[in-house]
Design brief:
The complex is a heterodimer of chains A (about 400) and B (about 250). By secondary structure, chain A is an alpha+beta fold. Chain A has three domains: about 130 residues, 3-Layer(aba) Sandwich (Rossmann fold), CATH 3.40.50.20; about 70 residues, 2-Layer Sandwich (Dna Ligase, domain 1); about 140 residues, 2-Layer Sandwich (D-amino Acid Aminotransferase, Chain A, domain 1), CATH 3.30.470.20. Helix content of chain A is about 35%, strand content about 25%. Chain A is built from 13 helices and 17 strands. Chain A has a four-stranded mixed sheet, sandwiched between helices. Chain A has a four-stranded antiparallel sheet with strand order 8-11-9-10. In chain A, helix 1 crosses helix 12. About 5% of the residues of chain A have low confidence. Chain B is an alpha/beta fold and about 250 residues long. Chain B has two domains: about 180 residues, Alpha/Beta hydrolase fold, catalytic domain (Rossmann fold), CATH 3.40.50; about 55 residues, no CATH class. Chain B has an eight-stranded mixed sheet with strand order 1-2-4-3-5-6-7-8, with helices on both faces. In chain B, strand 3, helix 1 and strand 4 form a beta-alpha-beta unit. In chain B, helix 2 crosses helix 3. Chain B is globular, with a radius of gyration of 18 Å. The two termini of chain B are about 30 Å apart. The mean pLDDT of chain B is about 90. Classes of the chains: A alpha+beta (about 400), B alpha/beta (about 250). Chains A and B meet through helix 8 of A and strand 1 of B.
C-alpha cells in the first residue's frame, strides 16, 4: 500500500476552498480505492503544519473550535532524506515516509509553485503541475505575456506593480484610458475572483486598483469582453494532454465571484456548485474546436503536467476566442466535469497519481550533475588542513 | 463592493439615490441584517450599509479596537465615499457607535434611529454583579480536572445563557471587552439630534428599560416599542420601516 500525503490549507485567501478540494474529491477518492494509506497534511493560516488522520474526515473542519483544537496538536516536521518523511518530534518521535505527495492547495504558497519547489527538493513524486508551470500560471500578467509570445489570443491589458502605480500614476492612467472600456481590474496572483472588479469610469477604476493592491503587489487592468460567453476547459496528462468537457457557467452575475464558484452548491455538488454550469457548453462547433486547440496549446506552452484548467472568454458576435487564465489546481479538480466524459473521481485521482509517477520517473533519467575540474582551475587557495 | 479604509478591505452596499441613510449593524452581525429594511424603504433614499471591521466580509483589525476606533473608522468611511449622511440607523452595537460619534460631534446628521441600541452599561445592576461572581468562581472551578476537560463548553453555555456575546466573539474578545466597558449615559445627554428609539418589548440583550433610559437621557428622543426581541428590525420590518419613514420623511 502506497503512502500519500495530501497537502491543503495554507497561507492563502483560498485556504478554505483548499480544505474542500482536499477532501472532495481527493481524500475521499484515494481512500475509496483501498490502495493508499492517506495522510492529510494541513497547513494553518499562520503557516504551522499538522498531520492527523482524524483530518481525513471533512467533518473535522466543520466542528466548533476546530482551529483551536488543531493549534493544540503537536506540529509535524518534514525530513528530506532522498524522500519525504513526516516527523512528529518528541521523546516518542514518530516518522512516516511518503511515497507520493498530492498538493491540494490553492493560491499563494501552494498553487504558485512554492510547495512544488519543496517537493522537488525532497525528491518525491507529486501530483499536478511542476514548479515552473505553477509559478507562471499564478501570475495572470506573466501568463498572458507568455501566451501572446506564442500567438495564443489574449485580451489587451496593462499591468503594473504597487510601486509603479504609486510612482507613475498619470502615465499608467494614460495607458489604461487607451484600452476599450469597461475594464476589469484584477490582482495577478489571486484566484477565485477575489478582489476582481468591473469598472466603468475613472473613480471606480481608482477604487478597484486600491482594493486590488490591498491584496497583491501586482495588478492588471484589461478590456472587458462584451457579448461574453465564458467557458472553461479542464485538461489532464503529461506529454499527451486530454481535455475534459467544455464547461459554460450560467451567467447569474456580470462575472463569477467566490460565492458563485464554491459556496452556492448543493449537497450533491461535489464541492463546486453543480447547478452553475452546462457541460458540454452549447457553443458552435468551430468555437468548440478553437477552445480545445487553444486549450491544449496553452497547456503545452506553459509546461503543464498532471492537471490544469484553462479559462476562456468568447466574444460571441465576432466569434473571437481569448484565453483568459490558467488554473493549475482546479477547485475540487473539476471532478464533476471529468464525470461527464466518463472519468469517475476515483479514476481521476488514480490517473493523476500515475501521471505524477510517470513525470518523476522521467526526471530520474535526467542528468543533473556532472564532474568538472572547474574548482581546480578556479585558483582557490587549498584548505589550511591540506598538505602544503 | 469593497473599499479600503484604514488599510482594511471593507465590504459595503451603496444603493439608490436621494437623502443618504447609513446603517450600522450589531455585534457578530453584518450589513445583511438590514436587507428587509433596505428593501422596504422608499427609493427616494440613498441607502448605504457596511460591514463593520471584524464582521461580515470586512477584515478584522490587527489590534483590539475600542469604541473610539470604530467611530473613527465609520467617519473615515463616510469621508472616503464623500457622502453627507442625513440619517444614521444603528442596531445594537451599531447604535453604540452612533451614540458615541454623535455625542462627540464626529457624526453629523439630521436624524438618528437607534434600534435595540447598546450603550447603557449594566455594571452596577444586582444581576450583573451576581453573574460576575459566578463567572469568576466558574473560572477557578474549570481550571482543575475534571471540569477543565469541559471548560470551553461550560464557558460557552454560561455566556449564552446570560445573553452575552463574549464567548462567541472569538478573535474579537478583547475588542468586545473594550467596546462594552464604556457607559454612554453621559454621552447620550449631549446629543441634540432628533432621535428615534425602536425597541422590542421582549429584548433580553438590551432590555426595554435601556431604551426607556436612553429616551430620558437624549433630549430630543422618542421611543417606540413593538412586540418582539432584540432583532425587532428583522422580526417586524414593515412596522419598523413605517416608524422610520414617518420620522425621517
Amino acid at each position: 500500500m502506497k503512502t500519500v500525503a495530501v497537502f491543503f490549507g495554507g497561507r492563502s485567501s483560498e485556504h478554505d476552498v483548499s480544505i474542500i478540494t482536499a477532501h472532495t474529491p481527493i481524500i475521499e477518492s484515494l481512500l475509496a480505492t483501498g490502495e493508499y494509506d492517506v495522510w492529510p497534511v494541513y497547513i494553518a493560516k499562520d503557516g504551522s503544519w499538522y498531520a492527523d488522520k482524524a483530518m481525513n474526515n471533512i467533518a473535522y473542519f466543520k466542528q466548533d473550535g476546530w482551529e483551536t483544537k488543531i493549534a493544540a496538536q503537536k506540529k509535524v516536521q518534514i525530513l528530506f532524506d532522498n524522500g519525504l518523511t513526516l516527523v512528529w518530534p518528541g521523546l516518542m518521535q514518530k516518522t512516516v515516509r511518503m511515497d507520493i505527495a498530492f498538493p491540494a492547495m490553492h493560491g499563494t504558497y501552494g498553487e504558485d509553485g512554492s510547495l512544488m519547489g519543496l517537493l522537488r527538493m525532497a525528491n518525491v513524486p507529486f501530483v499536478g503541475c511542476d514548479i515552473f508551470a505553477s509559478a507562471v500560471a499564478m501570475d495572470k500578467a506573466l501568463t498572458k505575456q507568455v501566451l501572446a509570445a506564442e500567438g495564443v489570443p489574449i485580451v489587451p491589458f496593462v499591468w503594473f506593480t504597487k510601486h509603479d502605480w504609486e510612482q507613475n500614476t498619470d502615465e499608467l492612467k494614460e495607458k489604461i484610458v487607451r484600452l476599450r472600456w469597461p475594464l476589469f481590474v484584477k490582482p495577478v496572483h489571486l484566484g477565485s475572483s477575489i478582489a476582481i472588479a468591473k469598472v466603468k469610469d475613472e473613480p471606480q477604476l481608482e477604487n478597484a486598483i486600491e482594493v486590488a493592491l490591498h491584496y497583491d503587489d501586482k495588478v492588471l487592468v484589461e478590456e472587458s469582453v462584451e457579448n461574453l460567453i465564458e467557458v472553461t476547459l479542464p485538461i489532464m496528462g503529461n506529454d499527451e494532454p486530454r481535455p475534459a468537457g467544455i464547461e459554460r457557467p450560467f451567467n447569474k452575475a456580470e462575472f463569477y465571484d467566490f460565492n458563485d464558484k464554491y459556496l452556492s452548491g448543493n449537497k450533491t455538488g461535489g464541492g463546486v456548485n453543480s447547478q452553475y454550469s452546462e457541460i458540454p457548453a452549447q457553443i458552435d462547433a468551430e468555437l468548440a474546436k478553437q477552445v480545445e486547440d487553444f486549450g491544449t496549446r496553452t497547456y503545452r506552452v506553459l509546461g503543464c503536467t498532471g492537471i490544469a484548467r484553462v479559462d476562456f472568454l468568447i466574444e460571441s458576435e465576432r466569434k473571437q476566442v481569448y484565453v483568459n487564465e490558467v488554473n493549475t489546481l482546479p477547485g475540487s479538480l473539476y471532478a464533476h466535469n471529468w464525470k461527464t466524459v466518463g472519468i469517475s473521481s476515483v479514476e481521476l485521482v488514480q490517473k493523476l497519481v500515475a501521471f505524477a509517477e510517470e513525470r518523476f520517473a522521467a526526471h530520474q533519467n535526467l542528468t543533473y550533475t556532472f564532474d568538472s575540474d572547474i574548482l581546480k582551475k578556479a585558483g582557490i587557495p587549498k584548505s589550511p588542513g591540506g598538505t602544503a | 463592493m469593497q473599499v479600503i479604509i484604514q488599510n482594511l478591505a471593507t465590504e459595503y452596499l451603496d444603493e439608490g439615490s436621494g437623502t443618504a441613510v447609513l446603517f450600522l449593524h450589531g455585534w457578530m452581525d453584518s450589513l445583511h441584517t438590514f436587507d428587509a429594511l433596505a428593501a422596504l424603504l422608499p427609493p427616494t433614499h440613498r441607502i448605504i450599509r457596511l460591514d463593520l471591521p471584524g464582521f461580515g466580509k470586512t477584515e478584522r483589525p490587527k489590534e483590539a479596537w475600542g469604541l473610539d476606533e470604530y467611530v473613527r473608522f465609520v467617519d473615515n468611511f463616510i469621508k472616503k465615499l464623500g457622502v453627507e449622511v442625513d440619517t444614521f440607523v444603528g442596531h445594537s452595537f451599531g447604535g453604540r457607535v452612533i451614540l458615541k460619534g454623535a455625542a462627540e460631534n464626529i457624526f453629523h446628521a439630521d436624524k438618528l434611529v437607534l434600534i435595540g441600541s447598546a450603550g447603557i452599561a449594566k455594571r452596577n445592576t444586582p444581576r450583573h454583579l451576581f453573574f460576575n461572581i459566578i463567572a469568576k468562581l466558574g473560572k477557578v472551578a474549570t481550571a482543575i480536572p475534571p471540569l477543565s476537560f469541559w471548560k470551553e463548553k461550560i464557558r460557552r453555555r454560561f455566556y449564552t445563557r446570560i445573553g452575552s456575546d463574549y464567548a462567541d466573539a472569538g478573535a474579537l474578545q478583547e475588542t468586545f471587552l473594550k467596546t462594552i466597558s464604556e457607559d454612554l449615559s453621559e454621552s447620550a445627554q449631549k446629543i441634540d439630534t432628533p432621535t428615534l428609539l425602536i425597541w422590542g418589548k421582549n429584548d433580553t440583550a438590551t432590555p426595554l428599560s435601556d431604551g426607556e433610559r436612553l429616551a430620558r437621557l437624549i433630549p430630543r428622543a422618542q421611543l417606540e416599542a413593538l412586540d418582539g426581541g432584540h432583532f425587532i428590525h428583522r422580526e417586524r420590518p414593515e412596522e419598523v420601516v413605517a416608524f422610520i419613514r414617518n420620522f425621517i420623511c
